[in-house]
Amino acid sequence: GAVVSQHPSRVICKSGTSVKIECRSLDFQATTMFWYRQFPKKSLMLMATSNEGSKATYEQGVEKDKFLINHASLTLSTLTVTSAHPEDSSFYICSARERDRYNSPLHFGNGTRLTVT
Amino acid sequence: AQKITQTQPGMFVQEKEAVTLDCTYDTSDQSYGLFWYKQPSSGEMIFLIYQGSYDEQNATEGRYSLNFQKARKSANLVISASQLGDSAMYFCAMRDSGGSNYKLTFGKGTLLTVNP
Questions:
Q1: What is the 3-state secondary structure (H, E, C) of chain A?
Q2: pLDDT, tens digit, 9 for 90 and up, residues B62-94
Q3: Among A14, A2, A44, A102, which residue's Cα sits nearest to residue B50?
Q4: Which residue of B52, B103, B105 is in closest CB contact with A103?
Q5: Please, are residues B68 and B34 in contact by the beta-carbon 8 Å criterion?
Q6: Rg (CA), chain B
């Protein structure tokens, strides 16, 4: 089955530093990747949609300068949390849709638990 | 705007019994897709089952079935013969057919606990 690898699974960083999270589709091409944020015991909130080779589309209320998304290839998207603060601590999870398969389920990475101290 | 409603924050079921997790949705689209995902405490999202708006039959996948009532705009998940490993958060989601990205919108989730 389609596999999405997300790395790192856990990261602890100091306030003011930047953290990069990678999301790779291992055995399929993903023209579209989605980045979600999840607070404890809450639902997944879509942050942004990235299409390969173009700028990401951010959801309302998400700071594009804080959460930088790059989708440079059909198998890799990255989320960089810039100048992280404790309130950015959360569970971030990416998902990808296979190219040309609009009815297929999204394939999710295992998530990244970010803790900013 | 699309909306997914899961009214059960938590559910309990005895092992080997069946359980129904509720999901209602609101959309003006004619073409849409409904998904159920399972999220164990480890955090990964596991796809369970899919129902397309034009599918005439209810979807089934092993012990999972989707009770799709289009007129009522409901897509309840039925888990038969519950197992201890079914304890997890369950999310209902709808695929947005607007635009070309087909993003998913999630409900708030239901925490299922299977008791031995």
A1: CCCEEEECCEEEECCCCCEEEEEEECCCCEEEEEEEEECCCCCEEEEEEEECCCCCEECCCCCCCCEEEEEEECCEEEEEECCCCHHHCEEEEEEEEECCCCCCCCEECCCEEEEEC
A2: 999 999 999 999 999 999 999 999 999 999 999
A3: A102
A4: B52
A5: yes
A6: 14
Count how many Cα atoms sit within 13 Å of the Cα of residue B103 in the half-sphere of its side chain: 22
Which residues in chain A have their CB less than 8 angstroms from residue B36's CB? none
For an interface test with B, the pick among A34, A106, A107, A110 (most B C-beta atoms closer than 10 Å) comes out as: A106
What is the residue type of A96?
Answer: A
Instruction: List chain A pLDDT tens, one digit each, 117 residues.
Output: 778 999 999 999 999 999 999 999 998 888 889 999 999 889 999 999 998 888 899 999 999 999 999 988 889 999 999 999 999 999 999 999 887 666 677 899 999 999 999
> CA distances (Å), B93 to each of B48, B77, B88, in order?
11, 12, 16
